[in-house]
Amino acid sequence: MSERRPLTEDEISYFKDLLLKRKKELWREVIETLEREGAEEYQDLIRTVKEEEDLALADIKEETLLGILEPKIRELEEIDQAILRIELGEYGRCIDCGKWLRIKRLEIMPWAARCRECQEKWEKLKALE
Ligand SMILES: [Zn+2]
C-alpha cells in the first residue's frame, strides 16, 4: 500500500518536471501529426502551434480536424490542469473528494486529478451520458 499524504516540495518539483517533459513530447507529436497529414490548410496551424503552444490548443480544438489528435489534446489539457494545480498548491489532491492521491498513482499518471475511486465513479457517470 502506498501512502496518502501531501507531497513534499521535492516530489512536487519531480512531478512538475515529468509533466513538462510529457507536455513537450505531446506537442512534438501533435506537430508531427499535423505535418504528416500535410494538408495545405494546416500550414497556418502548424506555425501557430510552433510559436505559441498554449494558444494553439484552443485553435486545434476549434478545427476539430483530426480524430487522431483528440487523445493527445485531451492529455495536454489534463497536463495543463495538473500544472495549474501545482501552482495553486492543490497538486496530488483528488478534485472530487479532496483526499490525497497515492504517490504510486501519481507516478503512473502524474496528471491524475482524481483518486482511483472517484475516477471510476466519474467514468461510469460519463459513460451514461
Ligand atoms: Zn477522490
Description of the molecule:
This protein is mainly α and 129 residues long. It has a single domain (9-128), classed as Four Helix Bundle (Hemerythrin (Met), subunit A) (Up-down Bundle), CATH 1.20.120.910. 67% of the residues lie in helices and 0% in strands. It has helices at 9-37, 43-51, 53-63, 70-88, 103-108, 116-128. Helix 1 runs antiparallel to helix 4 (70-88). The chain is globular, with a radius of gyration of 17 Å. The model has no long low-confidence stretch (mean pLDDT 85). The structure holds zinc ion. The site of zinc ion has 8 residues, from helix 6.
Give average pLDDT, whole number.
85
User: Which percent bin holds the helix content?
Assistant: 55-70%
Unreliable runs, pLDDT <50, ≥5 residues? none
The main pleated sheet reads as: none
The set of bound ligands, ions and cofactors reads: zinc ion
> What name goes with the CATH superfamily?
DksA, coiled-coil domain
- What shape does the CA trace take? globular
- Calculate Rg over CA atoms: 17 Å
Amino-to-carboxy terminus distance = 34 Å
- At CATH level 2, the architecture is Up-down Bundle
Strand content: under 5%
Counting structural domains, the number is 1
Give the CATH level 1 class.
Mainly Alpha
Number of helices: 6
Total beta-strand segments: 0
Helix and strand content put the structural class at: mainly alpha
Order of helices and strands: HHHHHH
The CATH topology assignment is Four Helix Bundle (Hemerythrin (Met), subunit A)
